[in-house]
């Protein structure tokens, strides 16, 4: 069902009308530095923004026991965020349409050395079409778009004719436990839309992600006796070498997986952190590496973790140094399975129409090689889980930026999608 | 001139007599945790111990300008110790003999993870013949021996018939600037003895040491775009590989160096520290390695540093990632030249006699592949610089320990050496 052309034009104009305010709000969100564990203030801001618009509010903590018992839960560590999850609920007068979850995360990855940024990472500078800032693209732009897509309806006196949950979560960059917690809390709808920065495409398939740490310990000696000591940094690099072999094997397993076999390198192993040794003149006695690896949909994190553990244990047994004190492998973050969005759902069709209406282009879909919260809804709610959002550059990198023109198109498409998916009724007078 | 046998026996008995107190004092020194920068309290204790014995005291700071202008000075960094240097001076009534410097350092290397120690690193536990503890062997045992060798004379009513400077320095484990500062201050004598843990041997030759840091910076990206980003941890490892080639070349240059050509691997490059990356799911944007390499006597630190810089620069130019942002090489610690002790000096002969008198064995000499403060006296004072001390195990490692029996033999040998080198006179009444 194509949208009435008059209504479509009114909606486009309404998004346009609120867009300056939407950008200003997105900039506010960027200013609220919200690296892992520091999302308290931004969640308060989000809570107030939603409450001021009249949504029914709930705010709740992670249930560690429930998360760790669930197959999609990731292990907790000392770094795990304690910030709350915030959900605002729109309830229609008449539950006539299809319900919807609009989800976004507020946590951002660390900015890294500030000197490598053109502008300070948490200053939301605009240059040309780009809005810069850590977490701007990933995903405060999308976070604000959830709110402003609904605002666009209100501005012209309308509201969704179905329940809409607006969910603001944490831990998307490290465990995925925030999204899982909304599921465990009982939130459920007929579809979910998460506006991650996906270059105006729909995610068709998505890998699972496993984080693990390998700690090597050895026998340090004075460097004058280097031959008799064991260098833990060198040993850690030997383990990295073995993990690269495992990565190649996992990539070779792409054969027969339609969403992956045409990708050159669908499985990425990233050694993201390393730390070792205490003193230049002491042979290093310890070294820790923090790794992240992706897994195909259908492979459980448990299976992948077991294979990683066994491979490192086998390698260590055959290594003259590592066999003395076997390396310690711990799983301290993402422990999640990937998903695939089966083509042909009604939700996808509605989004494709909305995308065409907003951009004039056909909606493309693709495979992404990073974790996405959509997996919770796809795997455990078994509902159409749509991940679709604006153009961006350098997410997780320096000078992360989101395209402002793209953000407007996406917000428009989201508005059209909501209208078509949920239906509309006259807005409740405030 | 062999020592009078009656006096020799009295001296041996006197060392024995004071030995329990000497061990207790050594244990006190171990308890005073004195890693780099934290040597204030231990230097106060040393000051008081020397002053209480009636030595003329001086306490002074590093003269950064003078050190950095001197060819044997190492660069200062933020980690450089600000603790004072302490010197106690014995002045005889009659300056009849040869003057002597007895030197020792109080700084110790970091203990590393405490869980890898059998006993806590700063608890001076005795088990059998071993006294355990970080810095016990290297070199609080020798530090105490300097004092107790002189005490052994006093106990029988004697004192050296020449000036003796008892010097307590810092920065031996990181720059060698403490010893250099005593030289710059003007302290000078006819010989120096430093009782480092040298397994009851005399150091014949000693390498120079250069510390350097290599910092790699890259362009981090989300791990989903790993191919387009550059992994700084991998790049650091490529640099380590190139440095290993340089190390092999330097080892090959041992040919024609009598004190080195029979050593299998005289030049050691140690990658002692590594740190890189901020987040498991971000391709690491930076990585720093802290290295230590040894150089042959006669090679200046400046020449070595230039060769390291040029080699890394050349390697980086040919590396597709590193050529974008060349790695930064900085020299932040040891920048010191090695030395050789020419055989045949009178000081060596006196020490050999003393060693024979204390141990019944011929004094052996050897090359050590680690930095020694003796280089200051050998290179810049051009005096016989004797480095000779007790048996030890695992210095710079876990469960560092010094042999108590060996320490007694060494203290005795030092006492006999002082008597023979300086001559003796009746002790000044207190």
Low-pLDDT parts of chain A are none
- Widest sheet: strand ordering of chain A: 1-2-7-3-8-16
The CATH superfamily of the largest domain in chain A is known as: Zn peptidases
Summarize the largest interface: chains and residue counts: A-B, 61 and 61 residues
So, CATH architecture of the largest domain in chain A? 3-Layer(aba) Sandwich
Shape of chain A: elongated
CATH class of the largest domain in chain A equals: Alpha Beta
CA(first)-CA(last) distance of chain A? 31 Å
Determine the oligomeric state from the structure.
Answer: homodimer
What percentage of the residues of chain A does DSSP assign to strands (E)? 15-25%
Backbone CA Rg of chain A: 23 Å
| Largest sheet data of chain A | 6 strands, mixed
CATH topology of the largest domain in chain A: Aminopeptidase
Order of helices and strands of chain A: HHEHEEEEHEEHEEEHEEHEEHEHEEEHE
DSSP summary: helix tally of chain A: 10
What is the structural class of chain A? alpha+beta
Mean pLDDT of chain A: 94
Q: Helix share of residues of chain A?
A: 25-40%
Number of domains of chain A: 2
Pfam family, one (chains A, B): Peptidase_M20
Keywords (chains A, B): Cobalt, Hydrolase, Metal-binding, Zinc
Cofactor (chains A, B): Zn(2+); Co(2+)
InterPro entries (chains A, B): ArgE/DapE, Bact_exopeptidase_dim_dom, Peptidase_M20, Peptidase_M20_dimer, Peptidase_M20A, YodQ-like
What would you say this structure looks like, in words?
The structure is a homodimer of 430-residue chains. Chain A has 430 residues and is α+β, with helices and mostly antiparallel strands. The first copy, chain A, folds into two domains: 5-205 and 340-426, Aminopeptidase, CATH 3.40.630.10; 208-336, Alpha-Beta Plaits (2-Layer Sandwich). Helix content of chain A is 36%, strand content 20%. The first copy, chain A, has a six-stranded mixed beta sheet, with helices on both faces. Chain A has a four-stranded antiparallel beta sheet with strand order 4-5-18-17. Chain A is elongated. Chains A and B meet through strand 10, helix 6, strand 11 and strand 12 of A and strand 10, helix 6, strand 11 and strand 12 of B. Strand 11 of chain A pairs antiparallel with strand 11 (269-276) of chain B, so a sheet runs across the interface.
